[in-house]
Amino acid sequence: MVATATDTAPAQQFTRPRTALILVGAAILLTLLQYSGLLPAVLHRLPEAWIPPFAAWLDAGFNFIKDDLGLLALTRFLTEGLEWVLDVTANLLFGQRRWPFLGPIPWTAIAAVAAVIGYYLGGWRMALLGGGVFAWTALIGQWKIAMQTASVLVVAAPLAFVIGLTLGIAAWRYAWLDRALKPVLSVLQTLPFFTYLLPAVIFFKVGPTAGAVATTIYAIPPMILMTTLGLQKVSPEVVESGHMSGCSRWQLLRHVYLPSARTEILVGVNQVIMLSLAMVVLTAFIGMPGLGAKLLAMMGSFKLGRSFEIGVTIVLLAVMLDQMSKAWALKQPKHFERGTPWWKRHILLLTGIGAFVFFCILGQFVEVATDIGRKQNFSMGSEIDQLMKDFLALNWVNAITDGIRYFLNVQVLIPFRNFLLSIPTPALILLISAFALWLGGRRQAIIAALFFGMIALSGWWDRSVITLYSVISAVALAMLFGLPLGIAAARSDKWSRRVLLACDTAQTFPSFVYLIPAIMLFGITDVAVIFSILIFAMVPLTRYTIEGLRTVPAEMLEAADMSGATRRQKLWKVQLPLALPTMAIGFNQAIMFAFFMVIIAAFIGTQDLGQELQRTLAGTDMGKNFVLGICVSLMALTFDLTILKWATDQKRALGLGE
Hints:
globular, mainly alpha, MetI-like fold, single chain
């Protein structure tokens, strides 16, 4: 029996690669028949008559829900309450003339409170970060637009937290709800942001209200997932002790489960805050005022200096919120001896209140403590603009960018795009399925064929292929730059920290800031699109390459050294094979980032799904908007499921755990 099992193992091992090779051969045959003119037209592209009118069906369904079932009336009723809350935050933060007529709060008061909170969470460094970010925002002349963004953020993030926490608890309690929510959450996390914006506009009006709704929905999924994960990981011994102490079901949840899952829940809070900030900037596309709207306006006039300053402000806000929320997740409750006076136990709270009151009073007498005017701020936007224009006007810069643009456009990108478009629809589906089979297995291959088959039936196949071409091109180029950078940085702690810091900074920049240098360097071309996606996609590739290589077990490296391996042999034979599962996660995230960024690149004027999605915002084509969004989601999910399955299998094979 042992011999038989051993003999059959190689045959089983090569089943997947051989089957994948057969699928690739079939795809090549279909493509050659197409090139020779022998392939029937119906096998090249589905005839329009065969395309189901999904958009019309969805429009009919949406209209039925919106009008006949009265959802529009309900959402407009809810809008009034949400508008009232947003008016309150707007009045307090930037002085909109609505109830409670108390605003605006002086920038010095908010900066002081942020510094006190920072000190409570992480000492003087965090205090300087908290107070310094708000001081920068005021001194650079961006206080009002930052507070317009913050007035929506302080409403959307808590809403997303409450809804996500509630649904997470419900999904943990009821297995059927957990099973139902998981595929929905997977789709929501891969839908392009334009798909969130149009329904928000239709049901909740243009402006801050729609922006708050879209931001809330966008930020909910990670809160649900982290809450469910945290509650599922609670130790049975801890629960048993709760039962023995006579806790009711509600008391168990409140005093046992939620405190035990505190770390995971607060990680969810961190992700909610970061996603909310990212989305509230992007809601500028539907009339949301604030940093995003100003950034879009500056981009439209190619004012790189001012755009850079606004981008830096958004980065600083993101870093501050990220670091503070992470510090909150790690901070343990502080206990005092019995009998400690109340004021000693809450000294920082009293300090914060005192600082807030002091600066509010000071603001009544010293104008600069409340508002910094145009002539008083330290903005250098115009100077940076002129500096960049002078740099781009240099002959050698033009020669380099022209050479890169010509080579990539004429020799690489356009031929690659045309080649993908020339492949018959079933042939490309076979190629994607072969990739999924080889990497992930039979289940992933079936999912890939099903998902891309649905895209073919959507009527947007060519636009989807162009979107896929942009993603593949950008990720391939990102690998050429990101992987060597990560490998080089992983050789020392100092360079690892520096490069990871650069990755953190690049990731927190608002995504459409990258369009400005791309356009200025390469014009309105495919190269500009690929360049803007490339920068965004490089971040996870570099990050996870460093983390994968730095976490290789020390004993494995020692064994390689003892066997006399050179540095190159140790890298190729030991470090990279063991780091590949972690690097695969970075590759997967790079693809997800690329799908996200390719939609942003529609601002340049692409010919892909992003361009069509952007056009839907000008009308009420919810059906078309949803179909386009699902096409992007299905492509992203195909790669996501396949690569993560491969990473899991590799970890198991290497004994690294799930």
